[in-house]
Batch of 3 targets.
Target 1
Amino acid sequence: MKKVILITGASSGMGKETAKTLIQEGHSVYTAARRIDQMQDLKALGGFPVPMDVTNIEDIRSVVDLIIKKEGKIDVLWNNAGYGLYGSVEDVALDEARRQLEVNVIGMAAVTQVVVPYMRKAKAGTIINTSSMGGKMYFPMGAWYHASKHAVEGLSDCLRLELKPFNIKVVVLEPGFIATEFGHVLVDGISKYATKSAYSAMINKIIEGTKKAAEKGGSSSPSVIANTVSKIVSSKKPKTR
Ligand code: NDP
């Protein structure tokens, strides 16, 4: 059955790859991100790119209004926008730490707050939140990213209980290493703090390890995520914890 789907963070990586799959499966797919130019190929395939910074509530409202006006509903929301900030707790500037939580956690909650009333009215819906294996585990130099993804886990688990009576499902994705633009942020982020940190030896070791793992092909293709999300979208009863 054709679904109306909103994906945040769809201008690259797993969001973009999954958007392609879902468009090709015949769904109405609204792809949101700041880099609208990066989504023109999705438009050519039949998708609907929309500009959205998840930290800007006006952007969020205007995208959701547009979808409701055109489609009358949103069946699936995939909160996928996010990035990784790396460095020691001692070194990472607090403004950057706030930005990490603002995008990965508050941004997710903001989009959810605007979409949920329509799903509640329809008594149906699926919300997919991208966490990470980093939402279950932790590594040195990853404090703010891990804090953000642990928060995504807690937020999603509470949301699932709150929305169950309204027949709205909440699914959490916990990917391992996937080859996307995310890896570049990881290395650049660590490098930035490596130059001044008392932990530079530890940081450089992580950078080397990350590079070696990448060379050995230690990450999966975004198509793995595309297949998973496609199954969740088409399933009447998505697997939930
Ligand atoms: P990419 O960097 O390729 O994609 C990130 C997406 O998030 C882009 O489309 C970017 O769009 C968007 N984004 C970032 N900031 C904002 C913002 N403020 N407002 C709107 N969109 C934003 O990485 P991935 O595909 O790997 O990442 C997708 C998700 O998967 C993230 O939440 C990440 O934490 C998570 N993840 C990634 C893993 C990996 O190994 N790759 C592993 C586990 C989880 P734009 O810049 O155009 O706004």
Target 2
Amino acid sequence: ARASLKKLKDQPATTRDGIEIALHVNIDLPGDLGQVRGVGASGVGLFRTEFLYMNRRALPDEEEQYRIYRRAIKRLRGLPLTLRTLDLGADKGTQAEITSSISPLGLRAVRFCLKEVDLFRAQLRAALRASAHGPVRLLIPMLTHIGEVHQVRGLLARYMEELTHEGKPFNAKIPMGGMIEVPSAALCSESLASHLDFLSVGTNDLIQYTLATDRIDAAVSHLYDPLNPAVLRLLAMILDAGRRRGVPVAMCGEMAGDPLFTRLLLGMGLSEFSMPAGALLEVKSIIISSDVSKIRHRVHRLLKKHDPLEIADALETINRL
Ligand code: PEP
Ligand code: MG
């Protein structure tokens, strides 16, 4: 099966009825960037930057980050790099003193960055400077309300001004996207979409927060269910908001890389998936074998169901088509 999947590498991810799907890769470590072209992906949909803290007490300064990001862009030779700003939190990072004290409902991700503005400044300036060398998109994690988007935009404008004065080049039109991974952001995704260039759904956290179920606690893993109707309704809302505002919606949580959910997501209208490189060709094989015009009405009926078990049954039928 591996060998036959490999043959799909250079084939476009187009459904039977001609819908083009973008398949991107999630990258946790710069050393893994070679996998992007290796599986024929169209870019990096999620470049996690928590590695910056690995085996050290402080973040690298602006200059070092700039060099790391520039090297990443060079390695991608023209493919887009979606650089997610620092997402420190309970389940992230290796800097025990910093991260162990951050609860999932605490000062994590963009909240932390907006408080530690010096640290955020170094990262945003480094990312801006790197954007002079290739297609970079910024992605802001853990947004919970529109005010955070305005704050980040304000900081970006200030750093752009600084760089202009210093004569350092950057892309003034750098796209800025937001992660939708908190119920409040999903419920208000239309207002977020109207102030962002793209949305990316982080299902790992969205499921955790919607279902009040710790994503790393094995004792409640039976409750951690992507097919819970509450989760599906939020996903439908987010995709709807994107369509209404003409803003692209991607998904970079684990759900996007699980072949069990590929047809469900296609039927809901998702057209950009980002996942670990190892999952990409199998997901592509399902996309190629799917006729969305035949799936769509079944998915819509599935979305009206209330019982996760019934939903799972309906999905199994769709996946067998
Ligand atoms: C997510 O929450 O789905 C996500 C992609 O971000 P992370 O797994 O890094 O929290
Ligand atoms: Mg997350």
Target 3
Amino acid sequence: MRTATPRRYLMCPPAHFRVAYSINPWMDPDKPVDPALALFQWEDLRDRYRSLGHTVEILDPVAGLPDMVFAANGATVVDGRVLGARFANPERADEAPAHLAWFRAHGYTDVREPEHVNEAEGDFAVTSSWLLAGQGFRSSPLAHDEAQEFFARPVISLELTDPRYYHLDTALAVLDDTADEIMYYPGAFSPGSRAVLARLFPGALLATAEDAAAFGLNAVSDGLNVVLPREATGLHEPLRERGYVPVGVDLAEFHKAGGSVKCCTMELRPAPAG
Ligand code: ARG
């Protein structure tokens, strides 16, 4: 039997969200975002989490940082320890200090400003045994070592090869973080990384190219409910077969910037009890 555990998430309202530049293949500044619709979709996601019993903390948006709504890229929090981000692109650089300030103001004391480029949960995923870490487009492999040292968790480096899946969280999602259950799209990874994933996660749910392109892997699971973009319909049945409850949401405005459910959601993982 699957069980949901209550989570704490950090989200940043899309007050300044737009597609102002292009740093991934999904972004076309000539395809404008509807700000009212984006806000409606974002609020629906936030309310969905709250109705599932989760806590959502709010990070104040900053003018001039249109991608800040993708809160998952601003820091990685594991065991109550915070590893800040360092963005690959100058357009997003100023998001990192805004995140650090939030953590310092909210009682986090173990906060590290990183040495190497890492786009946080965009490229880091936490399973019970490992920290899975993406590289190839954004985060540096040096950041993988830095994360292993800081979190004292074994890091598995994975190489992304398809520019549409430039962050690990566009190609892989953790379904149960008390076990090692994930879903991923093999086509996003190098042959060696694909073999590593097959070896570590023989029972993983493998997504089709269609569900990956619908941002179906950019999902957030609480151990039971898997919140994912509503277009990724092919994942519903395999998720149900495994005992999960798929929860489809509409984040189409955010897909124009190359992000969906997970990108909008940073998880604040608490220090272990005791
Ligand atoms: N436009 C943003 C970028 O390219 C989207 C980030 C999406 N976030 C994510 N966790 N994949 O950086």
